């Protein structure tokens, strides 16, 4: 998958692997991200601003990698049947996805900082 914000970045996933390789096609340098898991990568979804990557697996979990924090990883597990489809909001703050075995659409909101309401409670 080509990175739309940096025309020289290429994301590579082997059909038998659980890790990603990021390659700079201008310098030929590469970096491997992600931890080894027991499952193979199913699909990669890049956020519209290219700051995050959703990686779905042939298993009951997904991972989101954040470019702004040196490709740090967030993992959500316990997804019944695995993620079958996903889409990012235009502003890259929401991720919507569906699982194979549950008739629901899930939403995850990404915030750059903790937001508080007028009465001082955290906004989820």
From TrEMBL:
Gene3D superfamilies per record: YVTN repeat-like/Quinoprotein amine dehydrogenase
Gene Ontology annotations for the cellular component aspect, listed alphabetically: nuclear pore
InterPro entries linked: Aladin, WD40/YVTN_repeat-like_dom_sf
A biological-process GO annotation: nucleocytoplasmic transport
Annotated PANTHER family: ALADIN, ALADIN/ADRACALIN/AAAS
Protein name: WD_REPEATS_REGION domain-containing protein
Source organism per UniProt: Anisakis simplex (Herring worm)
């Amino acid at each position: 998958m080509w990175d739309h914000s940096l025309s020289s970045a290429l994301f590579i996933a082997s059909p038998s692997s659980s890790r990603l390789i990021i390659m700079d096609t201008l310098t030929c340098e590469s970096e491997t991200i992600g931890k080894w898991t027991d499952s193979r990568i199913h699909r990669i979804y890049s956020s519209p601003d290219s700051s995050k990557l959703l990686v779905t697996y042939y298993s009951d979990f997904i991972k989101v990698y954040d470019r702004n924090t040196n490709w740090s990883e967030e993992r959500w597990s316990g997804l019944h049947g695995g993620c079958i489809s996903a889409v990012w909001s235009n502003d890259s703050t929401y991720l919507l996805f569906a699982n194979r075995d549950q008739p629901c659409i899930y939403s995850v909101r990404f915030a750059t900082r903790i937001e508080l309401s007028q009465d001082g409670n955290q906004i989820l």
